User: What shape does this take?
Amino acid sequence: MSPHLTSAYNLAKWLTSSHEDAEDIVQEAFLRAFSAFESFRGDDPKPWLLTIVRNTSMTLLKRNLNTGATIRFEEVLEDPRERSPDPEQTLLISCDREEVRQALEQLPVDFREAVVLREIEGLSYKEIAATTGVPLGTVMSRLSRGRDCLKRILSTPRSVRTKEGASLR
Amino acid sequence: MNCDDSRIYLPAYLDDELDVAESLRVQKHLLECGDCQRVQDQELALRSALRDPELYAHPSAEFLRRIETAISTAALGQARSARSFGFEVFQLGWFRWVPAIAALLILAIGTFLALNSLQSSHEEIVAKAVLAGHIRSLQENHLIDVPSSDRHTVKPWFQGRLDFSPPVPDLSDPGWPLIGGRLDYVDGRPVAVLVYQRRMHKINVFLWPNHGSANDDIRQEDAQGYQILHWNGAEDTYWVVSDLNRSELLQLARVLRGH
Assistant: This one.
């Protein structure tokens, strides 16, 4: 099981944005996985373990539903077509690690989950579908909407941000 | 293919999730269309920003130790509750023959295990050594002795270090970039290890000359969450180990076998 512990923690940390919650979830998930291991039938235990981790995370998230975060999501999702960046600006994707991290943390949790499993964990579409328990088509649409949100957040021209920053001072 | 179709297929194309025919259609359109190329550049920029290894959240070593302790405690607890259950049944007096049956069972299981371990074939021993080599290579930061994606660097590096010259195929085109090579010691001899990568997964390919009979069938095994594939080629014996899923690893094995 141990090669999957790191993957489990990575997923839980990205879903909950909290180091402590991630540790609690992974611990609970692994103990639960351990007691259910006899009922597991299949080739690869990894999607099965990650499923337990994401279900445990989702339960916790529902319990501590953060209204502030929800408002942020809606802002991000507003009018995707109208604000679609023109091709001249599309290349200005920020590679600044902290900006990328913040952008990813802002995504709605379903989109964030798909993007994290694909880009950071390196799972295939099929593995993501198995882990999250949704059809392949849903995986693809969540990934593409998640990526579109990220592009929109990260491709805001730098000059605009600096101007905003300057006017505040 | 027009631009609308190309935009729809592009993410799956870049994720390596399209079949060959669809990939070729997207590729062809990209060659002809500057706008779609710019969208592709943006998709690629986003992917590379997200694949920053620093974004991967690693658990602390202390936490990993704690989990392992918790799991072994849980295992102990399960064994204990199983024992006390047996005792209660005995107390009820319903199954006075439980100890006798238990003794017989233990004897049978013991005999079975003993016979089994005697029969544990040479192949299983090698499989364990190969798996241990793979795990060790990931743990001790000793994955690669010669880091290079160029087969013309990796192949000569083995010369003088081994008594054979391992084939080092370039598989970056079918999507298996070479990231380097290293020496390992398996089955009582030094062997070549080629390290390939698929997304975040490292793949160790162990190989050495096959002095026995050739058998091209790929045998599969999984252990501790890793997949192990093995075949005896006409010239070399191959062992492929990774935490990648089995179907993709089989693809690689078939490509390697064809070379």
